Amino acid sequence: MSERRVAPYLVGVVFVVVAALFVVLLVNRGRSDAEGANSPLLGEPAPAVTGTYADGTPFELSRRKGSWVVLNFFRHNCVPCIAEHPELIEFVDQQRALGPEGAEFYTIVQQSTREQVDEFFAERGGDWPIVYDDKFEFQIEFGVVKQPETWIIDPNGYVRYRFISVIDADLLSETIQTMREGTA
Known about the structure:
Elements: H1 3-28, E1 35-36, E2 50-53, E3 58-60, E4 69-74, H2 79-97, E5 104-109, H3 114-124, E6 130-132, H4 137-142, E7 149-153, E8 159-164, H5 169-180
Parallel strand pairs: 4-5, 5-6
Antiparallel strand pairs: 1-8, 2-3, 2-6, 4-7, 7-8
């Protein structure tokens, strides 16, 4: 075939590929990107990591046994973190409504100062414990590369689930409830 005959076919193929990508983007618009992700930690005891609360008191993950624990890795200027924040507020409200059966929720701060985090929460709300990962123990032990990332730890201290990217309140609550019921 001559070059003149191939060019229209090539343009047509490129057009079809671009159109298909456009359709995929439109269909997925507004959906949560969160999905479970593999990790060698899944099914294993959670790392015995430590951090500090804003007031300087220590936080030890190993002392949280007996409760469902959700860790959300966060950076104050992370655009997906900002987008997911209203969902986290809703999730915490859902869990508090369950009383003692509700999961404990912690924001694990990375690469943000206390002032930046205080400003973030003052502007956007949220009143749950915030833990600073000043020594990068959480980041290293959990293998967190970017934020947001959310982990679920069961009452026995085992890592049960990992979400990478933005999470929504209902999906997170449903995932924990399924695990509580032993159907996960």
